User: Which sequence fits this backbone?
C-alpha cells in the first residue's frame, strides 16, 4: 500500500467512524424492533430498561407484532411503466418496458421482495444494491439490510449525499479470489451493525468489508473498499468504462502475460475508456425512425452517474433518513401484552384445588380412578374440595385492548385480515371497510412503487452503460403469440451536430394495473364478465368467442391456445363462406342486369 492509499484509507476510516456513531441510535432501534417481531424482546420498564430479577423474560408470548406485519405482506411485484418525454420515443419506451419485464423474470425479485416485505415495516426501510456482473454480462440485484447501510450524517436523501457506506460480509477466500487481496484468516474487528451482537462475539472467518461510494472532485462516483487495515479495491469513477494499460509505455495490457510485451514493465494501471469506435455501420430504429450510425463514429460510453443503492421506505418522515417503522409504533403495546400475559400465566399456575379433611382421616392420593378410604361417617362429613382460581378477566381485557390499539394504529381491520367481521353485515359493507383500511396503507404501497420505479431506472441505465451486445427479450404480439425482439443500446444514441449523445429522457413509474395483470384468476374473471356484457361482440358468435379465447390465451388460461386455434379456423371458414356468398349474390345481380331484370336461370349455390 502506498502512502497516498494509506492516507486515503485513514480518511475514510475516520469518516466511517463518525457516520457509524451518528447511526448507532437507529441501529439500536432496529435490533429492538426485530426482537419484538420475533417475540424475543424482553419486558421493558417504563423508562425503557429491562425488568430486573428475571422479570424481563416471557415464557409465553402472543406475537401480535409478528401477526400484524405478516398481515400486510404483499408479494406483488410492481410492473414497470416507461413514459417517453417526446412523441418520437413511443416505440423505444415500449422496448425499454418489455426489456425490464424480462429482467423481472430473470432476477430473483420474488425472493428479494418477500424479504423486504418483513424488513421494511419492521425497521422502517430496506435497500436494493444494483451491480453489473461482468462474468454474466448482466445486471445483478440483491438486498441490503438497513443496519448495513450507513448514511452520511445529517443528509436524509441518498441522491443529495457526498458519500454512503455499505457493509457486506465475505470470507477470506472469496475476497482473495475476487480482489486478489489477502486480508488474513481471523478478523481483528467484528461489526455490530450487521450481526446485532457486541464486539466480544466469538471468532469467525467471516470478514466485514466496508465500501464507500462517494462523489469525487469531478462529480463522478468512486468507490473504496477495505477490511480492517487492508484496502481491497479503490476505483476512481468506478461507473466509467475501464481498461488496463502498461505503466511504462501505455499500451493495452495483455492479461495472458505477466509483463508488457513491448517495454517489459511488470506494472499496469486502470484508466478510463471515454469513447467506443464503431467499426462497421450500425442500423438502428425501425420504420420511419430507421437511422445509420456510420463506421468510424466515436460514441461516448454512457455513465449512469447515480448511487447504485435504492431505498424503500415504509412511510416517509420529513428530514429523517430511515422511514417510519410499524413495529416502533406498536412495540410498547406488545410490551404491555407481554407483561399481562406473563402475569396471567402466573395467576393460572398458582391456582388449584384444596382438600379439607379431618387430620386423622387417611386419604388415598394415588391416580387410581376408584379410591378406598376407611374414614368414619363423621370424618367423611368433614371432607371438602375447594377450587381456588384467580380472576383473570381484567388481565384478558387489558391484553385485548392493547391488541385493538395496535391494529387501529396500523389501520388493520378484521376484514383486511380475512377474519369474520360482524360490523360488516353485507358484502358491500365489507368491501368498503377493506377499501378504507387499504387507504390507510396506501402510503406504504406508494413508497414500494417509488422504490421499484427507481430500481427499473437504474437497471435501464446500467444496460446502456455496460451491455456490449443486443439483448433478446420475449414478448407477445396482439394474437397472444410469443415473439422475440431485440434491445439494442444504440437505439438510444442520437447525433446532435457533430456530437453523439445518449437519449435517456424517459420517465419511470409502475403500472397501477399490474396487480390485476399478474393475478391470472382475476384476469380470467374479467374476460368472462366482458364477454357476458358483449364487449367482444354478440355473446355466442364465433367472433366473440374467438376474442374471449384470445384474451384468455394472453392471460395464460389452461388450454386457451388450443381453443383459440380451433375458433380461429372456424372463424376463417365463416369468413370464407361469407365471401363466397357475396360473390354468388354479386354474380346473380350481374346476370339479372344482362337479361333485363329477368334472369333465365339462376346459378346454383356453390357447395362448401
Assistant:
Amino acid at each position: 500500500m502506498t502512502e497516498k492509499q494509506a492516507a486515503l484509507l485513514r480518511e475514510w476510516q475516520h469518516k466511517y467512524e463518525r457516520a457509524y456513531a451518528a447511526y448507532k441510535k437507529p441501529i439500536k432501534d432496529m435490533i429492538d424492533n426485530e426482537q419484538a417481531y420475533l417475540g424475543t424482546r424482553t419486558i421493558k420498564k417504563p423508562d425503557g430498561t429491562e425488568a430486573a430479577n428475571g422479570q424481563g423474560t416471557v415464557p409465553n408470548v402472543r406475537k401480535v407484532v409478528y401477526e400484524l406485519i405478516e398481515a400486510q405482506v404483499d408479494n406483488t411485484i410492481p410492473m414497470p411503466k416507461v413514459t417517453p418525454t417526446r412523441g418520437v420515443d413511443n416505440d423505444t419506451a415500449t422496448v425499454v418496458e418489455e426489456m425490464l419485464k424480462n429482467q423481472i423474470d430473470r432476477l430473483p425479485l420474488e425472493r428479494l421482495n418477500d424479504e423486504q416485505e418483513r424488513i421494511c415495516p419492521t425497521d422502517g426501510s430496506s435497500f436494493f444494491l444494483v451491480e453489473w456482473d461482468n462474468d454474466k454480462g448482466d445486471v445483478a440485484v440483491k438486498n441490503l439490510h438497513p443496519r448495513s447501510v450507513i448514511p452520511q450524517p445529517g443528509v436524509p436523501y441518498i441522491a443529495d449525499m457526498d458519500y454512503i457506506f455499505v457493509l457486506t460480509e465475505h470470507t477470506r477466500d472469496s475476497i482473495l479470489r475476487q480482489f486478489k487481496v489477502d486480508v488474513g484468516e481471523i478478523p481483528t474487528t467484528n461489526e455490530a451493525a450487521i450481526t446485532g451482537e457486541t464486539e466480544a462475539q466469538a471468532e469467525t472467518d467471516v470478514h466485514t468489508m466496508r465500501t464507500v461510494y462517494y462523489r469525487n472532485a469531478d462529480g463522478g462516483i468512486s468507490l473504496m473498499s477495505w477490511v480492517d487495515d487492508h484496502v481491497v479495491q479503490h476505483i476512481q469513477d468506478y461507473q466509467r468504462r475501464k481498461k488496463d494499460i502498461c505503466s511504462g509505455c501505455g499500451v493495452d495490457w495483455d492479461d495472458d502475460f505477466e509483463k508488457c510485451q513491448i517495454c517489459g514493465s511488470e506494472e499496469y494501471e486502470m484508466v478510463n475508456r471515454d469513447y467506443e469506435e464503431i467499426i462497421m455501420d450500425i442500423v438502428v430504429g425501425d420504420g420511419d425512425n430507421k437511422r445509420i450510425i456510420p463506421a468510424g463514429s466515436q460514441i461516448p460510453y454512457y455513465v449512469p452517474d447515480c448511487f447504485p443503492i435504492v431505498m424503500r421506505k415504509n412511510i416517509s418522515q420529513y428530514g429523517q433518513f430511515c422511514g417510519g417503522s410499524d413495529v416502533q409504533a406498536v412495540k410498547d403495546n406488545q410490551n404491555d401484552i407481554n407483561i399481562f400475559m406473563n402475569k396471567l400465566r402466573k395467576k393460572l399456575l398458582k391456582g388449584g384445588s384444596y382438600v379439607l379433611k379431618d387430620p386423622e382421616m387417611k386419604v388415598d392420593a394415588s391416580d387410581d380412578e376408584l379410591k378406598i378410604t376407611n374414614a368414619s361417617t363423621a370424618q367423611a362429613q368433614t371432607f371438602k374440595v375447594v377450587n381456588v382460581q384467580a380472576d383473570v378477566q381484567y388481565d384478558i381485557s387489558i391484553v385485548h385492548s392493547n391488541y385493538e390499539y395496535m391494529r387501529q394504529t396500523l389501520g388493520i381491520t378484521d376484514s383486511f385480515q380475512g377474519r369474520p367481521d360482524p360490523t360488516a353485515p353485507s358484502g358491500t359493507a365489507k368491501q368498503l371497510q377493506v377499501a378504507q383500511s387499504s387507504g390507510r396503507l396506501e402510503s406504504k404501497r406508494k413508497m414500494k412503487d417509488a422504490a421499484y420505479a427507481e430500481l427499473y431506472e437504474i437497471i435501464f441505465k446500467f444496460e446502456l452503460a455496460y451491455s456490449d451486445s443486443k439483448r433478446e427479450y420475449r414478448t407477445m404480439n396482439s394474437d397472444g403469440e410469443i415473439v422475440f425482439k431485440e434491445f439494442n443500446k444504440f437505439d438510444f444514441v442520437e447525433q446532435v451536430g457533430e456530437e453523439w449523445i445518449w437519449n435517456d429522457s424517459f420517465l419511470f413509474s409502475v403500472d397501477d394495473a399490474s396487480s390485476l395483470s399478474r393475478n391470472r384468476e382475476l384476469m380470467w374473471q374479467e374476460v368472462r364478465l366482458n364477454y357476458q356484457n358483449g364487449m367482444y361482440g354478440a355473446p355466442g358468435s364465433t367472433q366473440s368467442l374467438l376474442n374471449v379465447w384470445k384474451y384468455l390465451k394472453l392471460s395464460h388460461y389452461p388450454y386457451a391456445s388450443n381453443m383459440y386455434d380451433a375458433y380461429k379456423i372456424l372463424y376463417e371458414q365463416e369468413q370464407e363462406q361469407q365471401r363466397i356468398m357475396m360473390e354468388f349474390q354479386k354474380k346473380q345481380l350481374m346476370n339479372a342486369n344482362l337479361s333485363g331484370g329477368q334472369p333465365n336461370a339462376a346459378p346454383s349455390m356453390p357447395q362448401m
Summary: The chain has 17 helices and 22 strands. Confidence is low (pLDDT under 50) at residues 198-202. The longest strand covers residues 206-215. Residues 64 and 334 are 7 Å apart (CA to CA).
